[in-house]
Amino acid sequence: MRPIKFRAWDTVKGTLFLNVQNLYDFCDLLRDDRYTFMQFTGLLDKQGKEIYDGDHLRFAYEEDLSAGVFEGTVEWSADGYWQIMIDAHGFSMAIFSDKISEIELLGNIYEHPHLLQEAPRHA
Question: What is the pLDDT of residues 87-109, one digit of tens each?
Fold first, then answer.
């Protein structure tokens, strides 16, 4: 079972806070619009770094017709699973797919908003 962990982006100060689930006033923070919360997915990248909602990844995808190296942003799917959004057109894939490997954390979209630009595909 994965640990339940959160981090929070302070939209006023532009600061990222880790392990906010351990704070005494965590429930009060959840009601404060000043903070954007990101949940831990339970996955680690190839360097052992924790992957959260809002993280931007580079990864290898291995399938006959669309193999290559991609970049995308982690988000929670409306269908109830973690997915990687590949582009602004809605192309995505489940992060727990056995076709994904070599996951590398590039940063998160709050500290590095330039990562939201359309992600490149590397052949």
Answer: 766 788 888 888 889 999 999 99
pLDDT in tens, 39-48: 999 999 999 9
DSSP letters along 18-39, please?
S-GGGSTTHHHHHT-TTEEEEE
Compute how many other C-beta atoms are within 10 angstroms of the C-beta atom of residue 53: 19
Sheet holding 35-44, edge to edge: 15-17, 6-10, 35-44, 50-52
The reported pTM is: 0.85
Q: Could you write out the DSSP letters of every residue in 36-75?
A: EEEEEEEEE-TTS-EEETTEEEEEEE--TTT-EEEEEEEE
Residue tagged 């330039």 (tokens): 114
Is the predicted pLDDT of residue 118 greater than 70, yes or no?
A: no
Hey, CA dihedral for 35, 40, 45, 47, is it positive or negative? Answer: positive
What dihedral do alpha carbons 42, 47, 53, 57 form, nearest 10°?
-130
Rounded CA gap, 31 and 1, in Å? 27
Q: What's the first-to-final CA gap in the chain, in angstroms?
A: 35
